[in-house]
Design brief:
Layout: E1 2-5, E2 9-13, E3 16-20, E4 27-36, E5 42-51, E6 62-68, H1 80-95, E7 100-105, H2 116-131, E8 139-144, E9 150-156, E10 167-169, H3 184-191
Parallel strand pairs: 7-8
Antiparallel strand pairs: 1-4, 2-3, 4-5, 6-9, 7-9, 8-10
Length: 196
């Protein structure tokens, strides 16, 4: 048996052949098999194989930025340097309305404040939603294992799933954002003493 193909590479012995379509353009490929008997008589047969364009790879999440929390007095505070970074994140989310974001908060092992990693994630989300107008449903908050006084921001395109190992979702019903400047009334109320 002799085999030939209009594209790709075909190889075989006897009645079996294999077509390698590596590098072949999408579309039909004609494969011809020619059989010759002992008397020198031959016959051809053909078949058509259609090569399809492979689907694009699935979308992947990617870390697009991170912010630091250097303030020792308010270690959850999103400072002006962080806000400049988050402004770029907000622009990216506005340009990609089908994408979502995941904010992963971290805390250093030397920091003793409970839920600090979660507070950093929640406060980062709060800035993006309250100050930059991003829909809260587009931002998920999580905490990460490992150290660092930071929060990472990951972009999750439509069709992708955030699967970063070592992160846990934050219960936003229990961890609320801490405002930079509490309302004056709230401060007075907190400091007011009641007399019997």
């Amino acid at each position: 048996m002799e085999y030939s193909a209009s594209s790709g590479k075909v190889a075989g012995t006897g009645n079996t052949a294999t077509l390698d379509t590596s590098g072949a353009a999408a579309g039909p490929i004609t494969v011809t098999a020619k059989a010759t008997d002992q008397r020198g008589l031959s016959t051809d047969t053909t078949t058509t194989v259609t090569v399809e364009t492979p689907p694009p790879p699935p979308p992947q999440t990617s870390k697009i930025n991170e912010i630091e929390f250097p303030n020792k007095a308010k270690p959850w505070r999103v400072d002006n340097t962080a806000k400049a970074v988050l402004d770029d994140v907000a622009l990216r989310l506005q340009r990609e309305p089908d994408a979502k974001a995941v904010v992963v908060g971290y805390q250093d092992p030397t920091e003793r404040r409970k839920n600090l990693a979660a507070e950093r994630a929640v406060d980062t989300k709060y800035y993006l939603t309250a100050e930059k107008g991003i829909d809260p449903s587009r931002i998920e908050v999580r905490t990460g294992s490992g150290g660092g006084k930071k929060a990472e921001v990951w972009l999750v395109p439509a069709g992708a799933t955030f699967t970063e190992a070592g992160t846990q979702p934050v219960d936003e019903s229990k961890v609320k954002p801490i405002p930079d400047h509490p309302r004056a009334g709230a401060i007075k109320k907190a400091g007011k003493k009641t007399t019997p």
